[in-house]
Each structure stands twice: as structure tokens, then as C-alpha cells.
Amino acid sequence: MCETAALIFRVSKTIFAPHSNIQKFPPPKNGGENCPGFSNLSPTKNRRQTSATSTHRDDNPRPFQSSTAPITRRAEPAESKQPHTVKMAAVQQKHDWADDDELEETSTELPPPQKITNKDGSTTIIEYRLNDNGQKVKTTRRIRYITHREVVNPRVAERKSWTKFGLSVKDGAGPAPDTTSVGENIIFKPSFNWRQDAKDESKDPNAQAMKDKLKDKKVKCRICNGEHFTARCPYKDTMAPIGEAGAAADVAASAADEAAAASQGAAGAGKKGSYVPPALRGAGGAAAAGERMGGKYGERDDLATLRVTNVSEMAEEQELRDMFERFGRVTRVFLAKDRDTGLAKGFAFISFADRSDAVKACAKMDGFGFRHLILRVEFAKKAA
Amino acid sequence: MRPILLSGHERALTQIKYNRDGDLLFSVSKDQQICVWFAHNGERLGTYHGHQGAIWTIDVDPTSTILASGSADNTIRLWEIKTGRLLKTWDFPTAVKRVEFSEDGSKLLGVTEKRMGHLGTIVVLDIKLDVDAEQSDEKAMTIVCEDSKATVAGWSYLSKYIIAGHEDGSVSQFDGKNGDLLYNIPIHELNQPITDLQWSHDRTYFITASKDKTSKLITAKDLEVLKTYPADTPLNSATITRKKDFVILGGGQAAMDVTTTSARQGKFEARFYHKIFESEIGRVRGHFGPLNTVAADPTGKSYASGGEDGYVRIHHFDKGYFDFMYEVERERQNKLNQQQQQTISA
User: Fold this and answer.
1) Which of A228, B71, B132, B289 is the most buried (most CB within 10 A)?
2) Coiled-coil segments, which residues (chain B)?
3) Touching B: A residues 142-161, CB under 8 Å
4) A67 vs B2: CB contact, 8 Å cut-off?
5) What's the gap in Å between the CA of A32 and the closest CA on chain B?
6) Distance (Å) from the C-alpha of residue B64 to the closest C-alpha of chain A?
């Protein structure tokens, strides 16, 4: 048997910038080295607790649960609706560059720490200290000790009192922030139909059936007998489909064509050969789980996309990427090319990760000479 | 659940292990140090220094007094857990890839690597579970693996058998007393090495993980495959949870293959399967690299995973985890409850 205590912290913090009366309230920070979950494990608190209970420090199995609790930056009444939550004590202070010019020698006098016992049994501790920037930091903590008993294996309890050794020998009680931190909350709910939820592609019966169907079929062009769909044939415009010579192959090829079209479209929808717009292709089919082009970019893309015109026919996507990469991270380069000849059509779209980079690039690259032509760069208009 | 991140290592984790009470977690990595952590809040208790090479393996005796570690500096070392003091060093011709204490802690086995003309061996050392006792230099037993080297090994119940997993995907059973080979059964796909072997709490069956993307539950007595858990990625580790009938698998693309695979993510997730129904019930993400090792808390309250990214993550389960039951399990539970009430009223 041993006793443990849960604490309540209410923290108010005021930074006094040297030679100014401005009180700065730092923005609340979540995670990082100021992770609030450590408040109940901060060295002073822990020591206090051990001395009070003299058995072991903390047996709360989920010590970090409380780190989602909001940061309170004003002194508040200590009555708490949730007596077991632990409010944070972000003791460390973020360095603010705005304070740099005010860095001067300050008096190191600090007011003595105060300890007030409140009527409701909680304790208020006000402490002052200097942070790394020489600023005075006032930390107000409201603490209430709630003792709850928990049965712990005596061997485990004994081990909790062991002194630290090795690289941890200088660490105080409680987790050291340089080795232990708290990750983002993970929602893990076991579910027996987990696989169905995740839409596993290999288990999709439609896709599997289509794959089986196409396994021993070969794609054959009706125009040139090449290994591509007739619609993709480079000689589509210049040659007529092979007549008598290809007639025998025709039947098999067209069947393959149709099957292929169906696999591209709604697989197994039953409407063979009917046109499926690209946006709907893959619905329920093999590509359902895959990414769709443009879907990743969406609206955001239009804001940081440049249209580049008067591009040389010889231009390559990589060249454009290299040119525009100088201004920031380029997420996408699209250079329109003629399908038959492979030459550039003379315009391109460049998407930046950041709009400000796009603005810079637009200003700099408009009128830039590239391969004997003068580029025209403007923001892309929203697609109709 | 909010995982606790332990960043005590600078290189990839190789093994993590809970002690029997589940309050301490030991971790070893390729950066030559051993860390011990309090499992409930992630506080580091200490580190053990002395190894001169990557540490491949670690084990803790059942009373949590002595720690054994095996390293690429060709040694097995014993440590006093409480203080970090080095107690004993055994030298071997090659690296030590796995150590494990027997159920009572009186014996320690070590698996040595096949290299430089030396065959892979399994050595057994007698251990005195006392930090002040003089440990014997002599090896109690040496088993030479002539066909395929052993990658992992462990002691069955009552130290009756030594079970070894091999590089060629087979599992062997040796007599625990004299080291005779009793069985060698191809369990996993040929030439897909077995990467991990962890025991159930009573050591009557164990789980293996293999690069052939499956994990299997096998009995210790006759090496019968009870269950198979298929995954879609090479597995590095597998463990059996207490309290709930689950198994946890860890794996992911090998670090060297990550850049060459097209997968949007490298599948660096811990996978939970139901131990009996063999179906996957969920995944936990978080690591940036493949999971090299997973370990389940013997009290069933948490599990930890160590990754190629150098982090150990301890996860304390939420209520939803403990409440989860299959329909048949729930029915059975209800029936049992009813019976109990009837006996009480009668």
C-alpha cells in the first residue's frame, strides 16, 4: 500500500521586460520542451510529494493525459470542476527576438517567494526567477494535493526510489525534458472490420475480377498493330485502321480495348464501352484508394500557380523547374507538349508551395530571356 | 492515447524489453548504450556503459536484478540493474545477436553470428542471480548451427527446450539439457530470415516474425503452427499482449529500400491482430522509420515500440482498447457473468 497525490496547478505568468512596464503574455505553446504534461512531474513538486507521502512519487499510469488541459494565464479561483486534472505550468519562456534590443544588465534582485494557504485548502506559491534573457519571470501556481491510495507491487515501489545513474545521474526527479517528451494524441480504436474501413485494394472483388479477366489479353492497336490502345496510336490521324490484313486480330483487339476501357472506368459497372469522364474514373475500381491528380492541390494551388507563356519549343520541364526553384519550393511544373511531336506547345504552369514565392517569381521572371524568347509570366486564372 | 517519446538513443533501436513487473523498460540501440526507463512516465533511470559496438540484444532476469546484453563487440555483458555496474564480460569470436534468460533466471543463452570462418552457435551460460557472486567463465553448453545460422532463440517453459529461429526461415527445437536437435521444421518461406521470437507469458507457445511478411504463433512442444498473421510488409518484431488476446507486429520497408519504393508511406506502423481470429484490428502510426522492435507490457496496460528512427514510443492503452471484443467474445463474457450471478444467488 502506498499513497500518491494528484496535483492541481493553476499558473499565471508575467514577464517583466527590463526597463519597460509592458507585460508580455507569451502565446500558449503546446508540445515541445514546454510540454505541459510535465508539470506534475516537475522536480520541486515531486520532491514535495515524496516527502509528504514518503513512499513513491507518482503512480498515475497516464501522467500525460492532462497535457491537453488549457493553459491558464490569469490567477483564477482555485475551485476546480475537474479535481483530478492537472493544469500546466509552462516554466520555460520562449525567447522573443523583439526583446533583444532591450537586453541590458538588470538588477538580480528577486522578490522572495510567497506561499499562501487558501481557504479551500489549496496552496498558492508565487516564485520569481530570471530566465535566459535576464527577464524576471513570475510564476504563480495553485496546488491542491489530493491523496488517493493505490495498491502497488512492493518491488515496483522499491524500484521507484532508486537513484539515477549513468547519463541520467544529474537529472532531477521526474522525466528529463531532453530524453522524454509526449507525442501527439493517437486515436487507436480496435475494430474487427478494420480492413474494410481501410478499403484494401487487393481485397476489392471488382478489381480482382477485372485483373483476372485481363490477365491473358494483350493490347493491340488496330491501326499499326503496336502494343497500345488504338486511341493512343501516333498514326491515328494519318492512317486508317488496317483492313483485311488486321481483320482477324480485330475481334480480340477490340475486346481487349473495351475491357481496358471498362477497367479504367467504373470497373464492373456493366456498361461496356460507355464513356466515363476522367473525374469519375476509378470510382470503386482499382484506383479508388489512389491519389487523384489535382485533388491534392485543389483551391490552394490556384493561388500560387504561375502561367508562363512564350516558352521555347525545345524547353524541358526540368529546365523550368530549375529556373523557378530559385524563388521557393515548386510543387508542380506542367509544360504543355504536343502529343505527337513531343515538342512544347509554348506555355507552362508552375505551382509554388508558397504564394509569396510565386509573387517573387512572377516579378522576376516576367520578361526573362530564355532560349531566345522572352518569357511572359503571370498568375494563372482560375480554371473555368 | 498520447505516446511517450523516449529519445535517449542516437541510432536505430535494436531491442526493447520490459521487466516482469512491467515497470521498467530496457532499450538498446546501435549507438552503444543501454537505457532503462520507468515505463509509466518515461523517466530515464539510467544508462549502462561499457560496450564498444552496436548492441543487438538485451534481456532482464525475472527478479529484475541482473541485465544481460549482447553486442557487436563480440561480448555478452552482465549488469547490475540498480546501479549500472558491469558485473561480467564473456568474449566470443563473433557478434552476439540474441540473449535470453531462462524462466527461472539460472541460465542465459546467447546466439552468436556466423562470420569470419566461425559457424553460428547458441551458447548457454550458468548465471548466479546475485550481484556479488562470481560468475563462471565456462560455457555450460554450445550448440553449433551447421545448416543455417540461428538469428533468434529462446527458452521454453521450465527450460525444457531451446527454440531457435533460423536465417533460412526454419524453426528448430533443441533439448534444453543436452542441446540435442529434436526438430527442425521449415515454418516461414525459404531463405526469409526469422527476425524475432517472443514468448507467451507461460512460455508454452511463441510468436515469430519474419521477413516473408508473416508472423506465426507456434507451440513450443511440437512446433505446431497455431495461427498465421499475414502483413503487407517485411516484419521485424512481433509480441503477444496480456489481458487482451492480441498480437502486435512491427515492421516496414527496410531502411535501405525506403527511397526506392513507391508506397506513399513506408508502412511504419504497429499492427494489431486478434490472436485467435487472426484478423487485423487496427494500426498505430507514429514512427518515421521501420519498427525494429515491439514489446508488450506484461501487465497488459501498455506497449512500446522502437524504430529505426531512434525513438522509443510507449503507448498506454485507452479504455476503448480494453472494451473491444468480438461478438462471440462478448456473448461468452455475458454467459459467464450470468453463471457467476446464479452461483452467487444459489
Assistant:
1) B71
2) none
3) 153, 155-156, 159-160
4) yes
5) 11
6) 9
Cα–Cα nearest to B213, from B147, B257, B183, B169: B169
Mean pLDDT of chain B: 90
Q: Is A196 part of a structural domain of the chain?
A: no
Dihedral, A236, A240, A242, A243 alpha carbons, nearest 10: 150
Query: Please, what is the average pLDDT of chain A?
Result: 65
Let me know whether A308 and A274 are in one domain. Answer: no
pLDDT above 50 (res A32): no
pLDDT at A72: 36
Query: Among the residues of A215-296, which ranges form H helices?
Result: 244-264
Q: Which residue in B has a C-alpha nearest to residue A173's C-alpha?
A: B43
Indicate the burial class of A101 (C-beta count within 10 angstroms; 0-12, 13-18, 19 or more).
exposed
- d(CA B242, CA B200) in angstroms, rounded, equals 9
pLDDT at A273 over 70: no
Nearest to B289 by CA among B248, B251, B232: B251
With contacts defined as CB-CB under 8 Å, which chain B residues touch A65? 2
| Three-state DSSP class for residue B102 | coil
Residues A335 and A364 in one domain: yes
Partner-chain residue, chosen from B5, B23, B318, that has the shortest CB–CB distance to A183: B5
Range of the domain at A368: 298-379
* 3-class DSSP state of A278: helix
Do the Cβ atoms of A20 and A102 come closer than 8 Å?
yes
Arithmetic mean of pLDDT, B101-112: 93
- pLDDT one-digit tens code per residue, B5-38: 999 999 999 999 999 999 999 999 999 999 999 9
Domain boundary residue, one of A260, A289, A318:
A289
| Separation CA A182–CA B33 (nearest Å) | 22
Average pLDDT over residues A95-120: 68
Query: How far from A329 is each of A336, B77, B256, CA to CA, in Å?
Result: 21, 51, 26
User: Residues of chain A with pLDDT > 90: what percent?
Assistant: 0
Distance from CA of A65 to the nearest CA of B (A): 7
Q: Are residues A41 and A144 in the same domain?
A: yes
List chain B domain ranges.
236-346
Mutation for A interface: B1, B2, B85, B322, most A CBs within 10 A: B2
ipTM: 0.79
pLDDT at A124 (0 to 100) = 87
**In degrees to the nearest 10, what's the CA dihedral of A280, A283, A286, A288?**
100
Residue A13: exposure state from Cβ atoms within 10 A (0-12, 13-18, ≥19) = buried
- The nearest alpha carbon in chain B to A290 belongs to B264
Q: In B164-323, where does DSSP find H-type helix? A: 319-323
Looking at the domain assignment, is residue A267 inside a domain? yes
Chain A with chain B: Cβ pairs closer than 8 A = 141
* B236-346 under CATH 2.130.10.10, yes or no: yes
**Rounded Cα–Cα distance for residues A221 and A252 (Å):** 11
Highest mean pLDDT among A46-60, A86-100, A355-369, B186-200: B186-200
Task: Tell me the per-residue pLDDT of B205-214, one tens digit each, with 9 for 90 and over.
Answer: 999 999 999 9
Q: Is there a domain that residue A229 lies in?
A: yes
Q: How far is A140 from chain B (nearest CA, A)?
A: 25
A64 contacts chain B (CB < 8 A): yes
Contact yes or no for B44/B29 (Cβ under 8 A): no
Using the Cβ of A196 and the Cβ atoms of chain B, whether some distance falls under 8 Å is answered with: no
Taking CB atoms and an 8 Å cutoff, what residues of chain B touch A180? Answer: 4-7, 37, 41-44
- State whether A278 and A321 are in the same domain: no
The pLDDT tens digits of the residues spanning B267-280 come to: 788 999 999 999 89
